[in-house]
Design a protein that fits this description.
Oligomer: single chain
Radius of gyration: 23 Å
Strand order of the largest sheet: 2-1-3-4-6-5-11-7
Largest sheet: 8 strands, mixed
CATH class: Alpha Beta
Distance between the termini: 64 Å
Length: 345
């Protein structure tokens, strides 16, 4: 019989017929579009793909992907995706979460998902505010931010999602923004990675924290505030590609190429297999004056870290196979009646 050719799926084939219910102008629309484009690029089989979410604005995602989906409970999506992947390792499993869902009530669960290296694609939308519950401060809110729950300004030092992911032992860590040209390739790189792929996405909440990332996404400012990470390439940025980041002893510093004899050879060369370098890069952030000028480092966007490592579900299966080989296939009825038992007359 002739081989049946499967139809080539388009991005729109991964969209459902549901009305997308986010606020007009929300950055989630761009991320949804990017996810559908990644699915098209990889030709994901819809019947083998599942999107799981917790609670929050971002967690409506499964309703809008024409795949299997599960809208779980607050902060517990990591447990659901772990169970799904271990039970059926052949599935493409995605987890969608937010800075509150994933790093507050779900922080402990997120940590264990990452350290176990379950083969799951994790999209963490970071808008630095609680949007669904109408504008309270979140774990990633900046110090001094005034919200409905911090009317005099937040006193907390914010959590850095990428630093948390690296410290927890994630085998893939990346960062992008909802408007960035690198969002699709960054998400695709995570999807092609075997293991826990953590992608932080700066997402604009135009209702409760509008413009939080404007300097990183605005066409007139982003070239001076962002450095795009490329494995094996020096850290060069700026509208004229004349600035870079080098190490001065154990500290990074921003330099101008050509000034005081500084050349590209003096700059840090990105090595995405170097966890220490990735942690250092995750700490770099711009600092802006009242005029929006960057007084600090550029924001590194792209893949900070990627390493091949055995996946949790593979290790589970190896352990099960070894136990079966050593002790034989189990018998559930015999297990129930093993050991100390008693009979009720």
């Amino acid at each position: 019989m002739p081989e049946t050719k499967l139809p080539v799926l388009k991005a729109k084939d991964y969209a459902t017929d549901q009305d997308v219910r986010w606020c007009p102008g929300c950055g989630d629309y761009a991320i949804l579009n990017a996810a559908q484009r990644v699915a098209q690029a990889l030709q994901l089989k819809r019947e083998n793909t599942v999107f799981v979410s917790g609670i929050g604005c971002s967690s409506r995602f499964p309703y809008y992907m024409n795949t299997y989906g599960f809208h779980s409970i607050h902060g517990r999506a990591p447990g659901f995706v772990t169970g799904i992947k271990v039970a059926n390792p052949g599935l493409d499993v995605w987890m969608v979460t937010g800075d509150g869902d994933g790093l507050s009530i779900g922080g402990n669960h997120m940590m264990h998902l990452l350290r176990r290296n379950v083969d799951v694609n994790i999209l963490l939308f970071n808008n630095r505010v609680y949007g669904l519950t109408k504008g309270q401060y979140s774990p990633t809110s900046q110090q001094g931010m005034k919200t409905k729950s911090t009317p005099y300004g937040s006193l907390d030092f914010p959590v850095d999602p990428c630093q948390v992911a690296l410290a927890a032992g994630a085998s893939f860590v990346a960062r992008s923004t909802d408007k960035d040209r690198g969002l699709v390739p960054t998400m695709q790189a995570g999807a092609e990675h075997r293991g826990a792929a953590f992608v932080e996405i700066y997402q604009n909440c135009n209702i409760f924290n509008d413009g939080a990332f404007e300097e990183l996404t605005g066409k007139d400012t982003r070239e001076d505030t962002v450095v795009y990470l490329e494995h094996g390439k020096p850290l060069v940025f700026g509208k004229d590609r004349d600035r870079g980041v080098r190490m001065l002893g154990l500290r990074p510093e921003v330099v101008t190429l050509g000034k005081d004899g500084v050349a590209e050879d003096d700059l840090i060369v990105h090595d995405q297999t170097n966890r220490s370098l990735a942690m250092m890069l995750a700490t770099l952030h711009p600092e802006f004056d009242d005029g929006g000028n960057n007084l600090g480092f550029p924001e590194p966007l792209g893949v900070l870290y990627a390493e091949p490592r055995e996946c949790y579900e593979d290790l589970v299966q190896q352990q099960v196979d070894a136990a079966v080989e050593q002790r034989g296939a189990g018998n559930l009825d015999a297990l129930f009646n093993a050991g100390d038992t008693y009979t009720i007359d």
